[in-house]
């Protein structure tokens, strides 16, 4: 999932082979030499490369290195300047003025201006694209001059910076690139690396943008290889065929901690995995039946099976250690309570269709544990494993009893709860609706006092768990490994993969 945040979307476009040639009338910038590329193994192929339309984490792993946003999160997930070098908010909190960074160019050589920001944001809003909910409070986006943008909001919006900079789904794109119809297969951004080519089913090659506004990358480019099997990716890393991977078998983590030939990083994340029961289907429209499932699953066994203990079992979305954390421990593994709740709801033996995707093997593993957990309760779980494109279609059409998925790259508490649990949330596939939750989540979007805002989300999160909109399972860790001669790279809690400061000893660009 994320940055992805893994936001659920309905558009899936098949990636095709394309090359960087003749796609613009602008004078291209110096993109360097890709012969000394850093080779990164990722677990799947991007569905497409339009940051405003894709929802796939694999796409955002690539796009993090191609596009920029106005602001972006630092290592502590605090928002910092990026394409906007400064900003201020009006006294009434209704106008945000962003001063853009001068001298920035797109990969095709065209200058970056305020009109690019307006076009990018209006595209998301006007076409109702995947992240339109990030602009729910926005009433106007306008260019005051070539280097100044004003975003007008209808009410105080404490999470605006996170909304526009939290992940590359809010990237600033090139109008020419969009209108040519090439952005999904040949993206043009302002980032440290430019798209060069794609070989479907195999790899994507980026090449260094020597004119990058932060300074030229230290490697000639990045080659993303698609290796779905973690053990294969790790073998390729150990054999020197790749330099970096985030496809590390969790069962090998303990062993790899003692492997001096590699650098292993296990970083606590804000990501979470969950189950959602379709409340449009009986008996899952009864909260007692949903609670029975929450009591009937063994989170410890799921964590052991899926992550070999590298994840942390959780009953709410936000993990301990996060400043927005809320303590909650209602759902112990208790089959007696589960049976009682099923009896109270009048639920006898029942079949449950569980939707998972083969692109996330941990989901398939967890599904098998859950099926074993629920069988003694008279709940027969029929696991339906599909590709990610089909998974998206099925969840959007409501064709499931239960689904499992993860949300990745969350930062602000609104990211964890609004789209998923508000009655009008864009990712509320389970059809949860609670007026008090709606009120609290709406209030959280306008409350500028941090302590008061924390209390609003604490109350909302508790009701969401009590009423079982989601059954939260665990917070995974970001697990990455790389070769010893790779420096300048940092594993991040939000899962963002940034190679702009990475260096391979003996391979720096000139």
Describe the structure concisely for a colleague:
The chain is an alpha+beta fold and 510 residues long.
Molecular structure report:
- This protein is of the alpha+beta class and 510 residues long.
- 26% of the residues lie in helices and 22% in strands.
- The chain has helices at residues 57-63, 114-126, 160-165, 175-179, 230-238, 253-256, 287-296, 299-307, 335-344, 361-374, 388-397, 413-421, 435-444, 450-466; strands at 18-19, 38-42, 71-73, 79-81, 84-89, 95-100, 138-145, 148-153, 193-199, 203-208, 221-226, 244-245, 262-268, 272-277, 312-313, 350-357, 379-386, 402-407, 471-475, 477-483, 486-487, 503-504.
- It has an eight-stranded mixed beta sheet with strand order 1-9-10-11-2-12-20-13, with helices on both faces. A six-stranded mixed beta sheet has the order 15-19-14-18-16-17. Strands 5-6-8-7 form a four-stranded antiparallel beta sheet, with helices on one face.
- Strand 7 and strand 8 (148-153) form a beta hairpin.
- Helix 12 crosses helix 14 (450-466).
- The radius of gyration is 23 Å and the shape is globular.
- Belongs to the bacterial solute-binding protein 5 family.
């Amino acid at each position: 999932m994320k940055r992805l945040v893994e936001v659920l979307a309905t558009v899936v476009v098949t990636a095709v082979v394309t090359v960087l040639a003749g796609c613009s009338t602008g004078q291209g910038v110096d993109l360097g030499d890709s012969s000394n590329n850093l080779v990164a193994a990722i677990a799947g192929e991007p569905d497409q490369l339009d940051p405003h339309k894709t929802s796939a984490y694999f796409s955002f792993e690539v796009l993090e290195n191609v596009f920029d946003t106005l602001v972006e999160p630092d290592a502590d997930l605090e928002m910092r300047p990026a394409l906007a070098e400064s900003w201020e908010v009006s006294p009434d909190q209704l106008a945000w003025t962003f001063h853009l960074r001068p001298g920035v160019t797109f990969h095709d050589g065209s200058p970056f201006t305020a009109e690019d920001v307006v076009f990018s944001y209006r595209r998301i809003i006007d076409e109702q694209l995947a992240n339109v909910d990030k602009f729910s409070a926005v009433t106007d986006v306008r260019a005051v001059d070539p280097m100044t943008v004003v975003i007008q909001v209808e009410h105080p919006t404490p999470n605006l910076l996170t909304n526009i900079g939290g992940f590359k789904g809010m990237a600033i794109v090139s109008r020419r690139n969009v209108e040519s119809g090439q952005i999904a297969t040949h993206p043009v951004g302002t980032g440290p690396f430019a798209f060069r080519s794609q070989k479907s089913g195999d790899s994507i090659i980026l090449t260094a943008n020597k004119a990058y506004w932060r300074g030229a990358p230290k490697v000639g480019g990045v080659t993303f290889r698609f290796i779905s099997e973690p053990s294969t990716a790790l073998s390729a890393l150990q054999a020197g065929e790749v330099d970096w991977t985030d496809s590390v078998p969790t069962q090998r983590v303990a062993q790899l901690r003692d492997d001096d030939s590699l650098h292993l990083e296990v970083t606590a994340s804000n990501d979470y995995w969950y189950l959602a029961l379709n409340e449009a289907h009986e008996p899952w429209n009864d909260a007692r039946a949903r609670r029975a499932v929450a009591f009937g699953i063994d989170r410890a066994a799921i964590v052991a099976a899926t992550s070999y203990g590298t994840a942390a079992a959780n009953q709410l979305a936000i993990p301990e250690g996060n400043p927005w954390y809320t303590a909650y421990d209602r759902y112990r593994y208790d089959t007696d309570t589960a049976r009682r709740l099923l009896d109270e709801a009048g639920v006898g033996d029942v079949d449950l269709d569980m939707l998972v995707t083969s692109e996330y093997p941990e989901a398939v593993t967890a599904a098998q544990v859950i099926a074993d957990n629920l069988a003694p309760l008279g709940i027969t779980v029929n696991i339906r494993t599909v590709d990610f494109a089909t998974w998206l279609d099925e969840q959007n059409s409501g064709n499931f009893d239960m689904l499992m998925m993860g949300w990745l790259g969350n930062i602000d508490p609104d990211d964890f709860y609004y789209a998923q649990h508000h009655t009008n949330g864009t990712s509320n596939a389970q059809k949860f609706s609670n007026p008090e939750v709606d009120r609290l989540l709406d209030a959280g979007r306008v409350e500028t006092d941090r302590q008061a805002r924390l209390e609003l989300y604490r109350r909302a999160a508790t009701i969401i768990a009590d009423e079982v909109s989601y059954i939260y399972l665990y917070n995974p860790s970001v697990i990455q490994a790389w070769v010893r001669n790779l420096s300048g790279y940092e594993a991040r809690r939000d899962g963002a993969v940034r190679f702009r400061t990475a260096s391979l000893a003996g391979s720096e660009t000139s």
